[in-house]
Amino acid sequence: GGTGSGMGTLLISKVREEYPDRIMETFSVIPSPKVSDTVVEPYNAVLSFHQLVENADECFLLDNEALYDICFRTLKLTTPTYGDLNHLVSAAMSGVTTCLRFPGQLNCDLRKIAVNLIPFPRLHFFMTGFAPLTSRGSQQ
Predict the structure, then answer these.
(1) Which end of the chain is more exposed for a tag (fewer CB within 10 A), N or C?
(2) How far apart are CA 73 and CA 61, in angstroms?
(3) Which biological process, per GO, is one annotated for this protein (predicted)?
(4) pLDDT by residue (tens digit) across 64-90?
(5) Sign, CA torsion 27/32/36/39
(6) pTM of the model
């Protein structure tokens, strides 16, 4: 979204209207007071959940505070920046979508992921996990 403009939820709604038969996957970062720069971030996040429940098929949630703690405790970064947090988010997104981008025997599409992981249509919120954890500066 970006500062509560509603652009993200509007985009999801319009894409759902245009392509109702397509699987929509979202990655949402949940705000926290520790890493917040805007007072209304929690309100914007809560208000956007209705659109995610109604219009998205698979939602991967990422906790901003957990990302910050990973950077601080695990990666030993003294002052994690948004770039460091975004690096972790991009690694998680890359891992989740690997089966869509590369060939392999165990790969599946978004529809198969939904069929296997979603017990009820409105319960489509996932948490990701990945390893090994690396900081931006440590990669070659």
Answers:
(1) C
(2) 21
(3) microtubule-based process
(4) 999 999 999 999 999 988 899 999 999
(5) positive
(6) 0.84
DSSP state of 119: S
* Residue 2 host element (H or E): none
CA distances from 81 to 7, 78, 124, 135 (A): 25, 10, 30, 11
Token pair of 110, please? 């978004």
- The DSSP 8-state label assigned to residue 105 in this structure reads T
Q: Which residue has the tokens 């894409």?
A: 15
CATH superfamily placement of domain 7-127: Tubulin/FtsZ, GTPase domain (3.40.50.1440)
Provide the 10 A C-beta neighbour count for residue 18: 8
Task: Please tell me the distance from the alpha carbon of residue 1 to that of residue 105, in angstroms, as a whole number.
Answer: 36
6: left (phi over 0), alpha (psi -120 to 50) or beta: left
What residue spans define the domains of the chain? 7-127
Instruction: Classify the C-alpha dihedral 130-136-138-140 as positive or negative.
Output: positive
Distance between CA 133 and CA 140 in Å, rounded? 14
pLDDT digits (tens, 9 = 90+) for 9-34: 899 999 999 999 999 999 998 888 77
